[in-house]
Amino acid sequence: MTREDIIRMAKEVGLRDWEILAYEKQLKWFADLVAATEREACAYRAGIALLGADRGLANRVDYAIHKRGAP
User: I need a surface site. Which of 24, 27, 48, 64 has the fewest CB within 10 A?
Assistant: First the structure.
């Protein structure tokens, strides 16, 4: 998630510019935490959906989901 995405969402929930600047590091940390949690949920759902399918495919999907979080 980009800095601009975080600022846009913070403004959408009513944070003022000075609040965004004051809490930018915490907002970034929270956005990263939410993204990691969403990746885990997607990987879990993909694993369930592919249960009984080609295990190699399931592993590739799981790898692709987790790789998105890598810097």
Answer: 48
Tokens of 48: 């369930």
How far is residue 45 CA from its own chain's centroid?
15
pLDDT, tens only, 32-66: 888 888 888 877 777 766 666 666 777 777 777 77
Tokens, residue 40: 């885990």
What is the pTM for the complete model shown? 0.63
Residue type, 31: A
- Residue found by looking up tokens 């009984």 in the block: 52
As a whole number of Å, the end-to-end CA separation of the chain is 11
